[in-house]
Write a structure and sequence with these properties.
507 residues, alpha/beta, Rossmann fold, GMP Synthetase, Chain A, domain 3, four-stranded parallel sheet, 15 helices, binds malonyl-coenzyme A, binds adenosine monophosphate
């Protein structure tokens, strides 16, 4: 067979022959491989009929559902570039993404459609509705569409997705992800983690990020397995379904919440073969407690939106707590001096730089930002700091980028500070991440009032609402007469993090 669209041909086409379940749904229904494939062909057909052409951008801010999952694969079949958006984003945030990406079509949840309609119109995007129960104007278009018989021809270097990541300047950047980026990672992960057609992945992650959309789903597609497809993390549902699953992928909060539940026992997970954690640091204590309780060593891996997955602890061999394992096959990693870019000797802590088929194509229409982070020799400057041990295991020791990761969601302090600084009575702000038992880190804002002003933390929180997605909003506000600065005048965030380290103790 001549390959015409590698992502379709390698990941999607095998589903067409599968009468067995690809998705197990919480209400007991299943969707067969062939049924899911048909849905993708209908989506591709509908996109054609709505006038989208290969390379056009198609955005969706919808709740998790089988139809929502199929959007990416239907788009790939039509050659359309998919742009998934967190339902938590405010209309103002969505407007930026639609405008920046030049989206031709935007799908919204019906409940939010009235607020989003003017935003989409203002950006020149056509808006349609797709609800979590599979209804809405887009669902009607699907039902009426002539399914695509064959995929649009695409090459491995063509774009499959635009994933927006916030930036240190507060402006989000669209990471351009090619078919090759996804395909190389899918086959490597399926092989390294020993995925087979007998695997049943318990899927409770959101599907608008690399982790839930690509790492989880593409690995299962590459190996012919199936997924128990849950709408969100709900520990009761996980406990119910774990005995029927073989693998779970989650952010560290999944594991701390499971550990908080006495129903997590060896017997409950007797059928499981693999627990994977990533997107945020897994505490060594969590790794150890989980092993003691269940007999399973969580396999920790390291990835990024821009690079897909980079390293993984081994399937066979020691899974070391506090490390993210050696580089995956095909991924090169070097540790460099963050100031000079020169390679450092083994064991030294420095900037983690990455190169391989997994590494993205650059930021959408931001050549300067691309040039600043993607070197001419193909290495991507991750912003993460780390070192290799003598056995080649990578340890992430910190981040040079000013980034907070709460429950696996990234929050760039600058974006929050810009909103807070603009509030009346606020002279300046510093937003930091401080330890939080459930989310790993939580957002704390330190505010300096203008002279003579008494700031009300409750009013500050209320004012941030509507401008920032809820997960980016500060969980607490502290007022200080001024911010600690170094001799260069730069705010010393490390000092603030130290001072407020216990702010969420017991949360
Ligand atoms: C929800 N809330 C959060 C939050 N998630 N706040 C901070 N950080 C988060 N991650 C807020 C909600 O707005 C709400 O606020 C309150 O917390 C409870 O919401 P919820 O919906 O009940 O939360 P819950 O379902 O419990 O979600 C928590 C979570 C979820 C950790 C399970 O956030 C999650 O699934 N995270 C996974 C993120 C992920 O997939 N990351 C991968 C990125 S890709 P209020 O005030 O309204 O009650 C990547 C690359 C790689 O990083 O390596 O994988
Ligand atoms: P994102 O931009 O959402 O893709 O987040 C990527 C960032 O998450 C990385 O740059 C790391 O800082 C962090 N990350 C991902 N996996 C891990 C991990 N296993 N341990 C520590 N940090 C991680």
């Amino acid at each position: 067979m001549t390959e015409t669209n590698p992502l379709h041909d390698r990941l999607l086409a095998p589903l067409e022959q599968r009468a067995d379940p690809f998705l197990h749904l919480p209400d007991g229904r299943t969707i067969s491989g062939a049924g899911f494939y048909r849905l993708c062909t209908q989506i591709a057909g509908a996109l054609d009929e709505l006038g989208l052409r290969p390379g056009d951008r198609f955005a969706a801010q919808v709740e998790k559902s089988p139809e929502a999952l199929a959007l990416f694969y239907g788009a790939a079949m039509a050659g359309v570039v998919f742009l998934p958006l967190n339902p938590a984003y405010t209309p103002q945030e969505v407007g930026y993404f639609l405008e920046n990406a030049g989206a031709a079509l935007f799908l919204a949840d019906g409940r939010k459609a009235p607020a989003l309609d003017p935003v989409a119109t203002g950006c020149g995007a056509r808006m349609m509705v797709l609800n979590a129960d599979g209804t809405g104007s887009f669902a009607q278009a699907l039902a009426a569409a002539t399914p695509r018989q064959a995929p649009s021809p695409r090459a491995e270097d063509d774009l499959a997705a635009l994933l927006y990541t916030s930036g240190t300047t507060g402006r989000s950047k669209g990471a351009m992800i090619s078919q090759r980026n996804l395909l190389s990672n899918a086959s490597v992960l399926a092989q390294e983690w020993r995925f087979a057609d007998t695997d049943v992945l318990l899927h409770a992650l959101p599907i608008f990020h690399t982790h839930g959309l690509f790492v989880a789903t593409n690995t299962v597609l590459a190996s012919g397995g199936s997924m128990i497809f849950l709408p969100r993390l709900d520990v009761d549902a996980l406990i119910d379904w774990l005995p029927r699953a073989t693998c779970l992928m989650g952010v560290p909060t999944f594991y701390t919440r499971l550990l908080d539940d006495p129903r997590l026992t060896r017997d409950l997970v007797a059928h499981m073969r693999l627990f994977v954690s990533g997107s945020a640091p897994l505490l060594a204590d969590t790794h150890r407690d989980f092993a003691t309780r269940t007999g399973h060593q969580i396999l920790e891996r390291y990835g990024m939106t821009e690079t897909n997955m980079n390293t993984s602890n081994p399937y066979d061999g020691a899974r070391r707590a506090g490390t993210v394992g050696p580089p995956l096959p095909g991924v090169e990693i070097r540790i460099t001096d963050p100031d000079t870019g020169k390679a450092l000797p083994q064991g030294a802590i420095g900037m983690i730089e990455l190169r391989g088929d997994n590494v993205f194509q650059g930021y959408w229409q931001m050549p300067e930002k691309t040039a600043a982070e993607l070197r001419a020799d193909g290495f991507f400057i991750s912003g993460d700091l780390g070192c290799f041990d003598a056995d080649g295991y990578l340890q992430i020791v910190g981040r040079q980028k000013d980034l907070i990761i709460a429950g696996g969601y990234n929050i760039y302090p600058k974006e929050v500070e810009m909103v807070l600084d603009a509030l009346p009575g606020v002279a300046e702000s510093a937003v930091i991440g401080v330890p939080h038992a459930d989310l790993g880190e939580a957002v704390l804002a330190v505010l300096v009032p203008e002279p003579g002003v008494v700031l009300d933390p409750g009013a500050i929180m209320a004012a941030a609402d509507g401008q920032l997605a809820r997960f980016k909003q500060p969980r607490a506000v502290e007022i200080m007469p001024d911010l600690p600065r170094n001799t260069m005048g730069k705010v010393q965030k490390a000092a603030l993090r130290e001072r407020f380290a216990g702010r969420f103790a017991g949360a």
